[in-house]
């Protein structure tokens, strides 16, 4: 991997959870990073990035941009060789999935990539997609050729009414491939992580990952957790995958970035040796019939179709492309979840 530091790169959603660690890696490599944010004058929100910039050889330049405003990324993108498009909402607690998930993900991707078409300096786009664009429910695993999710598979089970977040990521990535295939000047690489965990540069970032870990420690899941299979990956590996996807010439297509095939009970067990005495971690695995009966009353995302298609069903993904072609080495799951939990404790987001 050879990194050309003579040309700047651009990052959308630069203050986000994954983007924060990506910004750190880019700055460590001495790059000039054009950070596209909603408000370049919000020093409070930018302080975590500024603190990293002070300690690294790279430089940050801030630009104002809006996902849904056509052309608003043109100034930030001008002269850049690589565009990292990370900006997209990750939440399941929405009132209007179309407005809060679909439009920012799909229309935002279209807005950014249509601007790429107009900026001659851009040679590659690295898109933060998701394993959610590969599958919607764990039950989808039963339809895969070898009982494992690979980059060749697309999510066909999600919709606006079922797994709307997964649907938004699928539409956004499909939009990206449609746009790149209509031209031949720049290429596209997508990073498809599973659930991202691990300490971020901003302990107060807004991501569903933070909500899940908080519920493990604040008593919300004290009675128990459902046996749901899930993929897990450290945020630092996701950032490294973005960097290598940008500057490895032969990188191409989609890359599943997922370190571990695990479950919610296994995540809880990983936390118990260090935190089990002081925090109300989940004590048992809930039977499926009980989750089906009470889930919708506890969590509106835990619908009965979701329970039927995910509880007591495994997640298995093949991460071999990311290991072989990008050289990603995955740290132990226990390290990632414990460091993440400790960060939330240290900043008062989980209390004894």
Automatic annotation (TrEMBL):
GO molecular function ontology, one term from the record: oxidoreductase activity, acting on the CH-OH group of donors, NAD or NADP as acceptor
Keywords: Oxidoreductase
Gene3D superfamilies: NAD(P)-binding Rossmann-like Domain
Residues annotated as domain NAD-dependent epimerase/dehydratase: 9-251
UniProt xrefs under InterPro entries: Epimerase_deHydtase, NAD(P)-bd_dom_sf, NAD(P)_dehydrat-like
Record-linked SUPFAM superfamilies: NAD(P)-binding Rossmann-fold domains
Pfam families reported for this sequence: Epimerase
Protein name stated in the entry: Diaminohydroxyphosphoribosylaminopyrimidine deaminase
Biological source species: Tamilnaduibacter salinus
Taxonomic path: Bacteria, Pseudomonadati, Pseudomonadota, Gammaproteobacteria, Pseudomonadales
């Amino acid at each position: 991997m050879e990194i050309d530091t003579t040309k700047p790169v651009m990052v959308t959603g630069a203050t986000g959870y994954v983007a924060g660690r990506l910004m750190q890696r880019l700055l460590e490599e001495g790059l000039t990073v054009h950070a596209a944010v909603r408000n370049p004058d919000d020093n409070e929100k930018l302080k975590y990035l500024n603190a990293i910039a002070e300690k690294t050889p790279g430089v940050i330049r801030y630009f104002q941009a809006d996902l849904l405003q056509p052309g608003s990324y043109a100034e930030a993108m001008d002269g850049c060789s690589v565009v990292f498009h990370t900006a997209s909402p990750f939440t399941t607690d929405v009132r209007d999935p179309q407005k809060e998930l679909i439009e920012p993900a799909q229309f935002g991707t279209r807005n950014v990539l249509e601007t790429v078409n107009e900026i001659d300096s851009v040679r590659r786009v690295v898109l933060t997609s998701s394993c959610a664009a590969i599958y919607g429910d764990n039950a989808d695993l039963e339809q895969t050729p070898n009982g494992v999710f690979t980059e060749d598979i697309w999510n066909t089970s999600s919709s606006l009414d079922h797994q709307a977040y997964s649907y938004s990521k699928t539409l956004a990535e499909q939009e990206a491939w449609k746009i790149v295939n209509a031209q031949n000047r720049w290429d596209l690489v997508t990073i498809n992580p599973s659930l991202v965990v691990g300490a971020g540069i901003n302990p107060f970032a807004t991501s569903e990952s933070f909500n899940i870990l908080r519920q493990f420690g604040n008593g919300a899941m004290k009675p128990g957790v459902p046996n749901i299979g899930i993929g897990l990956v450290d945020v630092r590996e996701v950032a490294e995958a973005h960097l290598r996807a940008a500057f490895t010439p032969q990188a191409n297509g989609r890359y599943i970035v997922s370190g571990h095939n695990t479950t919610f009970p296994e995540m809880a067990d990983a936390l118990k040796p260090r935190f089990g005495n002081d925090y109300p971690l989940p004590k048992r695995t809930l039977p499926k019939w009980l989750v089906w009966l009470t889930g919708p009353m506890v969590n509106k995302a835990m619908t009965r179709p979701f329970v039927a298609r995910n509880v007591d069903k495994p997640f298995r993904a093949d991460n071999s492309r990311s290991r072989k072609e990008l050289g990603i080495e995955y740290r132990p799951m226990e390290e990632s979840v414990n460091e993440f939990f400790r960060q939330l404790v240290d900043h008062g987001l989980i209390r004894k």
